[in-house]
User: Which sequence fits this backbone?
């Protein structure tokens, strides 16, 4: 037994009080840590999915909706745009790359995205098995899609109309799975990728294209649409003029992801600040509770502290016992809080995956949570200061003379 | 081993109390005898370095108390003094053996578990090592507290009212225990008591009568 061991024994000589103090500290720390970790994971998820996309062009409507639907695949797109208009934008000198996206169907709630091979290339995606699509009605599955549907290369499936579960199944045309993507921790994990022509073919079939005459088919070809397009600029200067040009001179809408995501995070930020505030209130209560606990311990344990002085302990050593007791409490609370945060964040990640929402990757939690133990110790030590000073100043002769 | 010259204590009320000069050799025993409130505990507190003398010179275990301060005084007390107050001060948060180990922890030293066990055995309470103080009888608790006081072989053992609440048989046992414990560590023993049974039991032991008169045979 040393000073640390003695403080540990004193701490648990009042198990109910210490347990409650530990619980309060843990809850406060967990709330703050979890909010910080979630905020960081969401920030990283959004930043990762947005990387390299300078502009999203789609039908007129809410720019936020366009970004959520086009980049994060969380919302319904505001409508479609003519393919010819998108191709015209692709030829603009300020545009380095345009990636078309066509939405409209799903597989068990996972969106089927008609696009070009430039889309997976943009995220640096690679195949785990199989090969990329080379023709209409061939599809490559994101890692999460393959895991949850159980489909493998060579199997086929039918898409269902709409972006959520429960739409009418397109029975006439089946997709052939040609490949499965490696997990990328990005939006592609929960998408089914195919050629843009696949989306057109499925819907042509639905609208009875097989019975159309040549003139009608030519008209249909001329009126081809896509849902939206992701653009990358040739020059940063394009950010100043290009969106305005699109919004003012075409029937399409241009939305800058950086602007919309900043707006989104500002809106989310209010809720996160409320949660963080609640965590701080909990910590304040915990700090007060630790103070009350140690103060009453000081009163109850005056005899023990006097005994230490009688046995030759310096006032500093006697005060140190209380301080170490508070440190134990802080460190224990930090350890339990870290475990709790780990479990809760894993649960949150699992739930979001099941809900086919944003992929949250919490691979380096220490990056956000490293200050937590220091914060816990700070709260505990601050709470212990007054009792520690009182212990330091104890009149041991007076205590020893008391007969009670 | 203990020498005093012109020793006086000052109380919070401002009153001062002088004590007769005395000189005790290593291994000798002294009784401080007098009614409650006569200054016995104050004398012990000064000898233990817990209370500064208002005047005079006090040398205990070869060390002039006035010359020590702060950390040095605490270190000296840890090394040289065994103190057994009337209230035994056994911590309920700790087992009996850990109550003894506290003597090492207080001094900032590594606990010598062998010494703890040997001392408990010498005082006949080794079988109580894992118990909490609340599970001890009064006599057992006193033995444990005495074991802690002599654990580190102090040069001086200061004991305050060891027989205050004991019946005659227990009183005789306690005195035998004290003299045995003092012999165990070769300590100079000072016992403060208002109990005439003690002075009668130790008729040959030098006795300081308080309020201060002189060093004489109390019996």
Assistant:
């Amino acid at each position: 037994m040393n000073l640390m061991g003695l403080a540990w024994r004193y701490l648990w000589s009042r198990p109910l009080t210490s347990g409650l103090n530990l619980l309060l500290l843990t809850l406060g720390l967990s709330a703050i840590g979890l909010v910080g970790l979630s905020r960081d994971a969401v920030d990283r998820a959004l930043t990762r999915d947005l990387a390299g996309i300078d502009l999203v062009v789609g039908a007129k409507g809410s720019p936020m909706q366009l970004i959520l639907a086009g980049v994060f695949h969380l919302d319904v797109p505001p409508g479609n745009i003519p393919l010819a208009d998108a191709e015209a934008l692709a030829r603009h000198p300020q545009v380095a790359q345009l990636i078309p996206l066509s939405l409209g169907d799903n597989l068990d709630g996972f969106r089927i995205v008609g696009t070009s091979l430039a889309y997976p290339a943009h995220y640096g995606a690679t195949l785990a098995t199989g090969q990329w699509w080379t023709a209409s009605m061939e599809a490559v599955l994101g890692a999460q899609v393959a895991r949850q549907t159980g489909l493998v290369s060579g199997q086929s499936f039918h898409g269902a109309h709409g972006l959520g579960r429960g739409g009418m199944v397109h029975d006439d045309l089946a997709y052939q799975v040609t490949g499965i993507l490696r997990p990328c921790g990005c939006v592609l994990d929960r998408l089914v990728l195919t050629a843009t022509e696949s989306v057109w073919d499925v819907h042509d079939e639905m609208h009875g294209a097989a019975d159309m005459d040549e003139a009608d088919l030519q008209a249909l070809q001329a009126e081809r649409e896509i849902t939206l397009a992701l653009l990358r600029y040739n020059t940063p200067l394009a950010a100043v003029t290009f969106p305005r040009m699109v919004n003012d001179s075409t029937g399409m809408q241009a939305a800058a992801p950086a602007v919309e995501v900043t707006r989104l995070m500002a809106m989310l930020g209010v809720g996160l600040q409320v949660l963080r505030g609640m965590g701080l209130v909990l910590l304040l209560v915990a700090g007060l509770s630790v103070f009350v606990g140690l103060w009453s311990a000081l009163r109850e344990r005056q005899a023990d502290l006097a005994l230490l002085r009688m046995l030759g302990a310096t006032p500093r050593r006697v005060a140190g016992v209380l301080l170490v007791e508070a440190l134990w409490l802080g460190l224990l609370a930090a350890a339990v809080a870290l475990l709790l945060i780990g479990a809760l964040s894993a649960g949150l990640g699992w739930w979001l995956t099941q809900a086919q929402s944003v992929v949250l990757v919490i691979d380096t939690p220490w990056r956000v949570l490293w200050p937590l133990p220091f914060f816990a110790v700070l709260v505990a030590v601050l709470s212990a200061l007054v009792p520690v000073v009182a212990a330091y100043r104890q009149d041991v002769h007076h205590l020893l003379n008391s007969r009670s | 081993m203990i020498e005093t010259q012109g020793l006086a204590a000052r109380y919070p009320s401002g009153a001062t109390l002088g004590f007769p000069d005395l000189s005790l050799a290593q291994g000798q025993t002294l009784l401080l005898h007098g009614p409650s409130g006569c200054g016995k505990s104050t004398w012990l507190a000064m000898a233990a370095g817990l209370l500064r003398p208002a005047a005079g010179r006090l040398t205990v275990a070869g060390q002039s108390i006035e010359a020590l301060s702060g950390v040095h005084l605490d270190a000296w007390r840890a090394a040289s003094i065994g103190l057994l107050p009337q209230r035994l001060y056994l911590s309920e948060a700790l087992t009996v053996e850990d109550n003894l180990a506290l003597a090492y922890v207080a001094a900032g030293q590594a606990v010598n578990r062998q010494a703890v066990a040997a001392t408990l055995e010498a005082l006949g309470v080794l079988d109580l090592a894992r118990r909490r103080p609340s599970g001890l009888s009064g006599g057992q608790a006193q033995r444990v507290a005495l074991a802690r006081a002599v654990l580190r072989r102090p040069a001086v053992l200061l004991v305050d009212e060891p027989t205050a609440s004991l019946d005659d048989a227990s009183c005789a046992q306690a005195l035998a225990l004290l003299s045995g414990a003092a012999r165990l560590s070769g300590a100079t023993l000072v016992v403060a008591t208002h109990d005439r049974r003690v002075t009668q039991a130790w008729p040959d032991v030098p006795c300081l009568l308080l309020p201060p008169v002189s060093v004489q045979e109390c019996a």
In short: Chain B is about 35% helix and 20% strand.
